[in-house]
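Dock zinc ion; give full complex structure.
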Amino acid sequence: MTQDCPVCGADITNNGLMMNELVPCPECGSDLEVIELTPLKLDKAPEEKEDWGE
Ligand SMILES: [Zn+2]
């Protein structure tokens, strides 16, 4: 199962991705977040500071 990168349109392969997992696009390097698993849906991760612990 693949999903298009919302930024550059490259195919991202679902290698056992998990909900809310961050996946770097192999083409454009954008951080993508898994927002839905079935069907797989990716969105651009917010480019904020790296304060994920909040
Ligand atoms: Zn991309």
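Observed: The mean pLDDT is 87.
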